[in-house]
């Protein structure tokens, strides 16, 4: 059982020690990884995915419960502890949603695989505006449907205790509910994001700069207030987006509400 993942700092792109020497993450926590393009976000995620032991460009080490991965198992077995969800992932196997989920449930020795498959689909449909059905072919799913199904599958069926999420804000799903779902299952969740709401929703955030971990922040009381206002604004914008999707029209009052809430966030 994973009780803690520890990222031991290495070197930045200039060959200097990272300002943050260590980051500890526990099950149920969400950690946001933020920083400009080229700052080293992908390398940090890759180090965790492949259980770096000083053998990557960053020279970081990833510990499991305080021990190096080599103390537990072969590298191939360790990789099964990590699930990854990215904005560009799609299904390529030609089978129905039902068959895929039932097979996955059976491979996990889960009783009543059919009921579990239904639960996963129901969960996925809470994350996407385009409901998917059990008889849909995996290859016919839209990008948003595919990512929603992947999130629900990882949350409810996969036994991987660590989930790496890459820019889920561009995945076409309810990104906030997706992160809450994953963390609610007791998984370690790391999310690479440029979205201020996701960054503030996280328990802590790692700021990347020049290939190194430059700052480790926790959400401040003021940021929690700002997050609540951002969530209000996002709710209105989601309603406007859905109205347009359904062929509806927008009116002046709707726009005024969105502008007002945006102004409230800025003044905070």
What does the model show?
The chain is α/β, with parallel strands linked by helices. The protein folds into two domains: 5-219, Rossmann fold (3-Layer(aba) Sandwich); 220-268. 40% of the residues lie in helices and 17% in strands. It contains nine helices and nine strands. A six-stranded mixed β-sheet has the order 5-6-7-3-8-9, with helices on both faces. Strands 2-1-4 form a three-stranded antiparallel β-sheet, with no helix packed on it. α3 (97-107) packs across α4, α4 packs across α5 (143-156) and α8 (221-245) runs antiparallel to α9. The radius of gyration is 20 Å and the shape is globular. The mean pLDDT is 87.
Compute the CA-based radius of gyration.
Answer: 20 Å
Number of helices: 9
The number of domains: 2
Q: What would you call the structural class?
A: alpha/beta
Coarse shape:
globular
Beta-strand content: 15-25%
What characterizes the major β-sheet? 6 strands, mixed
Strand order of the largest sheet: 5-6-7-3-8-9
| Average of the residue pLDDT scores | 87
